[in-house]
Model the fold of this input.
Amino acid sequence: MKQSELFSKTSKTFPSDEEAVNAKYLIKGGFVQKMSAGVYSFLPLGLRVLDKIKNIIREEMNAIGAEELLMQSLVAKEYWEKSGRWHTNVAYEFKSPFGEEFALGWTHEEVISAIAKHFINSYQDLPKAVYQIQTKFRAEQRAKNGLLRGREFLMKDLYSFHTDKENLEEYYQKVIKAYQKIFKRLSLKVKLTEAAGGAFTKEYTHEFQLLHPTGEDTIFYCNKCEYSQNKEIAVVQKGVQCPTCGSGEIQESAGIEVANVFKLGTRYSEAFNLRYAKPDGSQELIVMGSYGIGPSRIMGALVEVYNDERGIIWPKSIAPYQAHLIEIKGKGVESRARKIYKNLKEAGVEVLYDDRDVSAGQKFADADLLGIPWRAVVSEKTGDQIELKARDSQTAKLVNLEELLKKIK
Done:
């Protein structure tokens, strides 16, 4: 992609109405555009990052046997009433011009339960797991922190259906392991944290918390073992001995919740009379699980973790491009840069080519802001070689095209 042809452009200043680091850098870099409080449009650069996050999630969900579908955003009142969740403080509710009442989907337990009634009838149909990646809408009073707390956001929600609690527990642990793989691929260190179920279930649940100062949750965790609890349910406090391992000390940290898993049990199958026939013909309620992970929130969290005073430092797995090729105007430079650009594309490298007629200083500043893993500079000074520098490094070296390809692929 030629940078001169990008739909969006970088800005020289930070947005005046944003405090969160992720919002500042993403807007300044032309990744997203704020449209109103808690509502952002994803521009081409930002969508490339978001799609890579979504694809990693898809791959790991498919690997545990889940099938992708897409449910509606416009959810009729009748579904919410069955579960008792009509008139909640997070839902956008309204009447159509025809008098029908709806709420924009802030979650989809009701919808998937109604759908499942058509297709799950027997123990032979179980277990089943389906997921979607879809926009959710929640009436957040405190829409702040950029992509970390929005009124409109992207969510991957997975729903599983089981014959009994034991089968649910088995799949629940499988999803936890899949989530851990996802976060490893995303270069995010998260803690599996026990938490309350909120509006979803009366049982304890688990959150995946990224320990970070900008987080809105408070987490108590052991400095030696995996013990971790959200403050909302915590039975410990900072400085006490760990109740699990006995040798560690409880620490306290702010946390960004980036995913959660819920054992729903039979709450929604009771509401929708969702049952299956056992081998003897008797009917039993289906046991359900729900598992959420936020691609857009993950994007914001990544920027909170991976940045410096100059801009974003994207991990390789989700960077919008692998290489940022910069042409510094000079004799014979343009033809060499275009040839390198062509060679990189033919080699399958995702490359952003800065062919703009602006100063070298602006090109370097924009490269740091955009945070692409590798910067490759072609100038009169580099001669027949290319100056290569990693975004997270202070040093550059001269390489030829073959060496460049080995480094960045």
Q: What stands out?
A: The mean pLDDT is 96.
